[in-house]
Amino acid sequence: MSEIRLKNGFYPALGTPTDNEGKLIEKSFSRHIESMISSGAAGVLCMGTMGKMESILNDEYPKIAGKCTGIVAKRVPVMVGVMDCSVDRVIARIEALRDLVIEGVVATAPFYYKVNADGIINFFTLIAKKSKYPVFIYDLPSVTQVSINIDILEPLLKIPNIKGMKTANLNLILHLIRNDMIRQDFSILYSGLDSFDVAIQAGIKKNLDGMLSCTPNNTRLIYQNIENVDNSTISFHLNNILTLRNIFLQENVMAAFSYAMELLDCPGNYHPDYASPISNKLKEEIYTVMKEIKEM
User: Fold this and answer.
1) How many structural domains are present in the chain?
2) Is the pLDDT of residue 3 over 80?
3) Residue 16 pLDDT more than 80?
4) Sign of the CA dihedral with 34 first, then 38, 40, and 42 last
5) pLDDT, tens only, 182-229
6) Nearest in space to 208 (alpha carbons), one of 75, 10, 2, 3
7) For residues 78 and 69, is the Cβ–Cβ distance under 8 A?
8) Is 60 exceeded by the pLDDT of residue 2?
9) Using DSSP, how many helices (H) and how many strands (E) does the chain show?
10) Does residue 144 sit within a domain?
11) Residue 124 domain flag
12) Which of 81, 125, 214, 269 lies 20 to 30 Å from 252, alpha-carbon distance?
């Protein structure tokens, strides 16, 4: 594929609505994607963490990726999660995508055992060598038990088929910028939701998070004029998103996200099948806040 340089703007980690048998609810998924594109998304991540990639049925996985690319219809870039615990399993996921036209695949470090730095470098080096798609590194220490630090990233930056990184480590990004270490075809997607406003003010304007998927109106207002930022507007609408996120955190985040998406007329199970339902009290709080922040 040709060189990639993703545009500035927001990249929602899409949710994946499934029924009680784990099958995709296509109508909800289509409505969800359209809401993101109409809100100005610069691209989308299909089956990332918010898209419950780790719990999607094997036979549904390529169908969901295919449905996503079909709905998007090349209007914005599509990245697809391929996270797994061995190179062979990641490549098997990539091969399952067949000939879909996507901008790249997104992979974390292995997450069953804690892996040392050499193992992580080998993991991504082998994936990049074998993958038919460009590879994006997903730094997710809460799951993988290890952070992608500069010592790990520096040799990976030299591999042409590794085209970007998703991380919440703002200090790492600033280090790369200060030391002019970022290739022209390497894109960094900042995922530290709590400091999106600070990052944007610092010129880090490619932002990715799952909460953007259930707050299309506030997200649109943050990013509608991303090249000429209004700091007070950005912070105001980001605070709205964080208020809703903090309510989700009171119980089960993914189940709370499912309820928020139901309120947005995109119903389905966006949570794993083992997740406990949220309380009626939390549902009332989510409903009230979504009204207050004008998402409904």
Assistant:
1) 1
2) no
3) yes
4) positive
5) 999 999 999 999 999 999 999 999 999 999 999 999 999 999 988 888
6) 10
7) yes
8) no
9) 12, 8
10) yes
11) yes
12) 81
Provide the domain limits for residue 192.
Answer: 9-226
Domain of residue 157, CATH code = 3.20.20.70
CB environment 165-184: b (16+ within 10 A), e (fewer): bbbbbeebbeebeeeeeeee
Does a structural domain hold residue 276? no
Q: What are the angstrom distances between the C-alpha of 296 and each of 206, 218, 260, 261?
A: 26, 11, 10, 11
Residue 284 reports pLDDT greater than 80 = yes
Q: Which residue has the tokens 């649109």?
A: 220
Two structure tokens written together for 37? 């594109």
Give the helix ranges, DSSP H, for the chain. 26-38, 61-72, 87-96, 117-130, 141-144, 150-156, 170-178, 196-201, 216-223, 231-248, 253-263, 280-292
Tell how far CA 242 is from the center of its chain.
17
DSSP helix/strand/coil, 150 = helix
User: Could you tell me which of 45, 98, 30 has the C-alpha nearest to residue 76?
Assistant: 45
Residue type, 128: A
